[in-house]
Amino acid sequence: MTDIERLSEQTQALLDECENRLATLEVNIPQVGKSTDESIVVNQTEKTPEAKNRNRAKNRAANQAALVQLCDTYPEVFSRDNVRPLKVGIQEDLIADEKLARNRIKRALASYVRSPQYLRSLQAGADRIGLDGAASGQVSEEEAAHAQEKLQAIKDQRREREKAERKEGRAEQRKQAVKAKEQRINKKLDLLLQLNNRTR
């Protein structure tokens, strides 16, 4: 890792820490010169669905960037093609190794271990690997069962989301059909009015 990359990561970590501290202060300290009603309105406008979607997209992008960096730094341990169970406590090992910023490690690990590929790799008796790529413990029956439950929950959520999207699509089609029918009726009424005006 070059000095520029290291400085960039350190700067990003400091910016993230500053943002977190500012957010904490904004929540805990009333703003001078603003009534509580104004601050409530400001906070409510920030929580619009569009703002939530933007924040979610930004977080997802940051998580994916951190994951790519983790895979590039430790290719023998983290891979999208050969996903294997990780050693319990690998986060502390990564932090101690100091190749990546702590916030990057947390983001990347969270994305990695929540992925369906990782959950599928958690089979009872499978070897867990440490930073050196060597076996370091095994997946227990309980851990494997928990992973299967999470996988099922992911499938259920996906099914519900697809069902809602199909329902929304059908509702949109119905709206379009009603709108088209109204337009046809309006045209016919206009023609009838024109014919009626001519016959007078």
TrEMBL record:
Keywords: Chaperone, Coiled coil, Cytoplasm, RNA-binding. SUPFAM superfamilies: FinO-like. Pfam families: ProQ (PF04352). It comes from the Bacteria. Residues 1-28 form a coiled coil. Residues 58-167 form the ProQ/FinO domain. Residues 150-181 are annotated as: Disordered. PANTHER family: RNA CHAPERONE PROQ. This is ProQ/FinO domain-containing protein. It comes from Marinobacterium zhoushanense. The lineage of its organism: Bacteria, Pseudomonadati, Pseudomonadota, Gammaproteobacteria, Oceanospirillales.
